[in-house]
Amino acid sequence: MGLLDVFSSIRDRAEKFLNEKNVVTDFLGKLEEKTGIKKKIIAAGAVSVTGLYLVYGYGASLLCNLIGFVYPAYYSIKAIESASKEDDTKWLTYWVVYGVFSLGEFFSDIFLYWFPFYYAFKCLFLLWCMAPMSWNGSQIIYNKVVRPVFLRHEATVDNMVNDLSGKAMSAAENLTREVLSTLVKNKSLVNPLVSVAQSEPKSLPSSSTETSAAKISPSQPSEERPSFR
Predict the structure, then answer these.
(1) Where is the stretch described as Disordered (predicted)?
(2) Taking the model in full, what pTM does it have?
(3) Within its chain, how far is the Cα of 120 from the centroid?
(4) Are 95 and 72 in contact, with CB atoms under 8 Å apart?
(5) Alpha-carbon distance 87 to 80, whole Å?
(6) What string of DSSP letters covers 80-124?
């Protein structure tokens, strides 16, 4: 009964999504008009092709991350715009679990990359975390793993964050003070040089009289010799 309830909930959610007015349903509606195939069959075929691509296709990592991001992001925006706060808590829980999973995946990706059908299982895990049921993956992982660890180390983390923020603020203040003092010193060094350059007299070119006086004067005419007759 548990699996039947899960499949029934997923089917109802899918039908509700296909009956809504959004970009995906508009695109599926146009395909239905052109091909004559119902939207449900087109959606089921797209899901099957996506699953096969995750197993055998190139770039499965990007497709898996898009599946784990686009649908939750869309419904997170709708939750923000709605008046109810229950859906806000639901999708906040999902993003916390998604962040913890992404952090763990970052450090273990070099080993998980060689795991057969890893991205297909990752996609199923993300779908389980966002599944529209009371015991979806994000609720279970948050209540069983994330929340107990957080409550156990909350005070330590708060103190660490406060210390880091205080050190960051003091470092920023010291850096700003040093930069300002350096600018003031450079300005005080530049101003005297400018004043000295402005006070120096300009050298005037020598006059024509001084130039002519510096020239050598012409020689005196020689005396006439007496003639002997």
Answers:
(1) 197-229
(2) 0.57
(3) 27
(4) yes
(5) 8
(6) HHSS-SHHHHHHHHHHHHHHHHHHHHHHHHHHHTTSTTHHHHHHH
